[in-house]
Amino acid sequence: MNDYLLIGTGLIVSLIIIVSIARLVEKAFDRIRSKAPLPIDEEIPLSVPDLPASLPSVTYDENILSIGSMKLELESVIKQVLPMHEIIIVLFDSLADNSLFEVSNLAGIDYSGNEAWRAKLPSGYGIKPDPSRSSYMKITSVDPLKSYTSSGFDCQIDPSSGLIIESVFAK
Question: Does residue 127 have a pLDDT over 70?
């Protein structure tokens, strides 16, 4: 009889422990579910280099790039603009219309309003540079100039020529 009592007590204690753990887990999930969704962090602005006062101000709205009093109507909606000492880096919104870009959606425009270069897309790992399938998504760093692509490359770009200095496949 003592053996049955011992086994019964062991089963009851085990059941109590399992139920207690289940309640703790349920409370933890309830707390997680009851929390409001976390807000998406606001984008941290790029720290733009100190530019000489002699350079004109640069702003944009949709596909209009303003350099001082000059207004340029560009081929597509602008996503990011980064004024630098010799050049203005312009990232066009690839989601607006990918078919517009023959080389890529990342350009360097001089302060006279002329396109100085168009960055090529990286290749490797079986991925060919195709602007209808891949694009630069965001400028992530100023010094050095870096941008990542929708195909998974993190690229360091020479701001004076638009050439890819280094590309790292990050996907």
Answer: no
